[in-house]
Amino acid sequence: MIGLEEQVTTYILYAIPIYMIAFSLYIVRALKGPTIPDIVLAIDALTYDLAAFLVILSIFFRSPILIATAIVLALWVYSLDIYVAKYLEARELGE
Fold first, then answer.
1. Residue-wise pLDDT tens for the chain (95 aa)?
2. What is the pTM of this model?
3. Phi/psi class of residue 4: alpha, beta or left (left: φ > 0; alpha: ψ in -120 to 50)?
4. How far apart are CA 30 and CA 41, in angstroms?
5. Are 26 and 49 in contact (CB under 8 A)?
């Protein structure tokens, strides 16, 4: 019977390539996005997935500092979202 630690490690090893594919698709969308909201959405999704990936890596490497890094990254991206949304809203209103 496989132990819990080996099951978690196996899950993480299967999840890493999926995250890499998602990262590459987000980068393609950010570079080729036809509109600014598409680019912003791709960058948001990329960074939030990167934060989740850092949490998975922290479990894999048993390094709790990566969780703090993921939290800081998620908060930074959230503040960037607010800033970009205010900028785009002001630009639509013609201010």
1. 789 999 999 999 999 999 999 999 999 999 998 988 889 899 999 999 999 999 999 999 999 999 999 999 999 999 988 988 888 888 766 65
2. 0.85
3. alpha
4. 8
5. yes
| Residue 19: closest CA among 39, 45, 38, 41 | 45
Distance (Å, rounded) from C-alpha 73 to C-alpha 69?
6
The answer to whether residues 22 and 49 touch, using CB atoms and an 8 Å cutoff, is: yes
Residue 57 has φ and ψ, to the nearest 5°, of -65, -35
Q: With b meaning 16 or more CB within 10 Å and e meaning fewer, what string describes 48-79?
A: bebbebbebbbebeeeeebeebbeeebeebee
